[in-house]
Amino acid sequence: MARTVTINLAILAFAVASLVQATAGKTLVVGDGLGWLVPPGGDLAYATWAAINNFTVGDVLLFNFTSGVQDVARVTKEAYLTCNSTNPISLKTTGPANFTLDASGEYFFISTIYAHCPLGQRLAIYVTGPGPNPAPHPYSPPTAHSPVSPRAPVTYVVGNGLGWLVPPGGQLAYMIWAYNKTFMVEDALVFNFVEGLQDVALVTKEAYETCNTSSTIQVWSKSPAKILLNSTGDYFFTSTYPRGCILGQQLAIRVVSRNGTTDHGTTPSSSIAHPPSSSSTSSGATLGPATSPPPASSSSSRVIAGFLITMISIAMAVF
């Protein structure tokens, strides 16, 4: 009898342990490949990263930085807004550093190194409890409203001073560049790159996502390459040079009409006089990362863990 009870309790303990693992929070690497440093895009870099992620109680933030060169401090909202690092809530100077999001609400992080915070090394996030519909991030950069106010066509230099190359920090660099811009029909993109070392290719959504550049819609090898956005829809650009796409040389944008709408049945074309017939295929894409169901809260995990300990104690007592 004792042996049967022990086996049943062992099975139960194993099942509960599996449940604990399944409900653990996810780990989010702050800035992804960019890491935690003074960002090239100023405040927009980490604001963009925060805007494309969902934060739930039980998640863990991982800050990757070089010890002795960077640090990370959790601070109050006022300290975040004024870059005041005098009395942080907590400070970590050894990288990588973890912060567990153990309660819902606002979290603010900055670097205490001189001038780093004013230069954009700060992060504000909003953490929600478990549930399918997390609240919107209150500190994300503003997005364009629809309808869009009429304006003259704009020529955008991709990456600004960075140009078109394999970016430091991976794909986040061009995502940050495009994030708060409204691209309209008759606007143009200018890609500045070194001829013979880089190029720019207009590709399909599938080729963009898989970095398969064996089949392209159009390739420009002369710099600067100026591309007219002459139809609405989703445009996907990358480089055909080895590993350029994989290392983050990718740009995805959505082009709207002059009144702010997008015809998803129309595939974007370019300034070329006679684009290949493949460019008339509809992409029908929606830009932005997919979200996964939020994990259970850390308080629930603690309850389950306590239950597991109790079951093991009972099993030991039976023996």
TrEMBL record:
Pfam families: Cu_bind_like. Gene3D superfamilies: Cupredoxins - blue copper proteins. Coiled coil: none annotated. It comes from the Eukaryota. Residues 266-290 have a biased composition (Low complexity). Residues 26-129, 154-257 form the Phytocyanin domain. One of its GO terms (cellular component) is plasma membrane. InterPro entries: Cupredoxin (IPR008972), Phytocyanin-like (IPR039391), Phytocyanin_dom (IPR003245). GO terms for molecular function: electron transfer activity. Residues 259-300 are annotated as: Disordered. Keywords: Disulfide bond, Glycoprotein, Signal. Residues 1-25 form the signal peptide. This is Phytocyanin domain-containing protein. The lineage of its organism: Eukaryota, Viridiplantae, Streptophyta, Embryophyta, Tracheophyta.
